[in-house]
TrEMBL record:
Belongs to the peptidase S1C family. GO terms for biological process: proteolysis. This is Serine protease. Residues 1-26 form the signal peptide. One of its GO terms (molecular function) is serine-type endopeptidase activity. Keywords: Hydrolase, Protease, Signal.
Length: 420
């Protein structure tokens, strides 16, 4: 991924606090035709490529300031290069500020003069109001669709979590704009729940102004953790001497059939841990960078980019995930909500580890043949900060129809840690 800048952009705060925010005076309601003509130049296609130049993902982005656009972070997953395009014009883009927890990423584009949108204040949102989404569903550039703002979802602390809408959302719409009838941005379209008619969601637009500060805070936290890990004696605490072989057991809870999954640490390159002759590469803390030989069922096949849990999660944290995994002859598309759960203890190899549970709940589409099937996905990952690894993972996923059905009930558990 492009290097993330850590300096503040002087224009950003006044732009988002002033120029982008809607003025207090009333604005006229626009016809759909006028609204589209007015705001569609601010919505662009996002294309990503891997290191070999092969296409990875297609999404949307909204112009929020001079040379700046906002999109969903999951659109950029595993990307080496990013571009934004509209009609016959294309620009290279770089990631400037990632707020992965909220799935909002800010892009920077040089010599880019598309007009920024106006952001509506949250107190203007009304459940039942007509709203319009402009994006690039299935690659169909600058498509407009309409519906209702059907709900404003809040957390237990009464903070915004998502805008629920009846506007149709499809693949490629991620990162697009959700506008009110006055042409003001109220959200960034992000995901839909499969098998749930007209149940679609957008991220609140007022989060956009917080992206730079939250991204810099997250970066500072990672740098502090890295400094701590690099301090004398810290490496031994993060990866105790002698921990070289991590043996897991994958068990099908329907049949009782089990198999061993062994990760053998070959070498350590800085903060990169190389397992199984380079077929699996992790970072200190458990982030999975490469996995060339997936063998642990849905623990591998459905794993989000970077792993299920790669750092101790904040208590009570909640975040959304939407991503696609392609492995050999099958493709999985997942839309999940993750929540940090309770802490407990775990016994392995004579040790007692403190662990924290993260639950994942949502939907999956599995395409092992030409007939994709959709269904539910529920999983739990128990993470042990002391060794920086998921030590237990269970999944229950079922769906499909007719002859194309799936029913997965698996558990993967760490059963041994040894030096050789």
């Amino acid at each position: 991924m492009p290097k993330v800048l850590t300096t503040r952009i002087p224009w950003l705060v006044p732009a988002l606090a002033g120029a982008l925010l809607a003025p207090a005076r009333a604005q006229p309601v626009l016809t759909p035709e006028t609204l589209f003509e007015q705001v569609s130049p601010s919505v662009w296609v996002v294309r990503t490529q891997d290191s070999a130049g092969k296409p990875l993902a297609l999404g949307s982005a909204v112009v929020i300031g001079p040379g700046r656009l906002i999109t969903n972070c999951h659109v950029l997953a595993r990307a080496k290069t990013v571009s934004v395009a509209r009609e016959n014009v294309s620009y290279g883009a770089t990631l400037e500020f990632p707020d992965a927890e909220r799935d909002l990423c800010q892009l920077k584009v040089a010599n880019f003069s598309a007009p920024p949108v106006t952001i509506a204040p949250p107190d203007s949102w009304r459940v039942g109001a007509r709203v319009y989404a402009i994006g690039n569903p299935r690659g169909l550039e600058t498509t407009i669709s309409d519906g209702l703002l059907s709900g404003i979802r809040r957390s237990e602390q009464n903070s915004f979590e998502a805008l629920q809408i009846t506007v149709p959302i499809s693949s490629g719409s991620s990162g697009g704009g959700l506008f009110d009838a006055r042409g003001r941005l109220i959200g960034i379209t992000t995901f839909m729940l499969r098998d749930a008619q007209n149940l679609n969601f957008a991220l609140p637009a007022n989060w956009i102004a917080e992206v730079p500060e939250r991204a810099q805070a997250a970066l500072a936290k990672r740098q502090a953790q890295a400094s701590t890990a690099a301090a004398p004696g810290a490496a031994a605490a993060a990866a105790p001497t002698g921990d070289r072989v991590f043996e897991y057991r994958l068990r099908d809870r329907r049949t009782g059939v089990a198999q061993a999954i062994v990760y053998r640490l070959d070498r350590v390159d800085g903060d990169r841990l190389v397992f199984n002759q380079g077929n699996r590469v992790e970072r200190t803390g458990g982030a999975v960078l490469e996995n060339k030989q997936p063998s642990a069922g849905d623990f591998d096949a459905a794993m989000p980019p970077g792993g299920w849990v790669s750092a101790p999660p904040e208590p009570g944290a909640r975040w959304s995930l939407r991503y696609t995994n392609r492995q050999l002859d099958r493709t999985l598309q997942l839309e999940l909500t993750a929540r940090t759960g309770e802490t407990s203890s775990f016994q392995v190899a004579g040790r007692e580890l403190q662990i924290v549970r993260v639950g994942f709940d949502g939907y999956v589409q599995r395409s092992a043949t030409s007939m994709p099937t959709s269904g539910t996905f529920k999983a739990n990952a128990w993470y042990a900060p002391e060794i920086g690894r998921v030590v237990r993972f269970d999944v229950r996923s079922r769906g499909g129809n007719g002859l194309a059905q799936f029913d997965i009930d698996e558990v993967v558990e760490l059963v041994d840690i040894r030096s050789e």
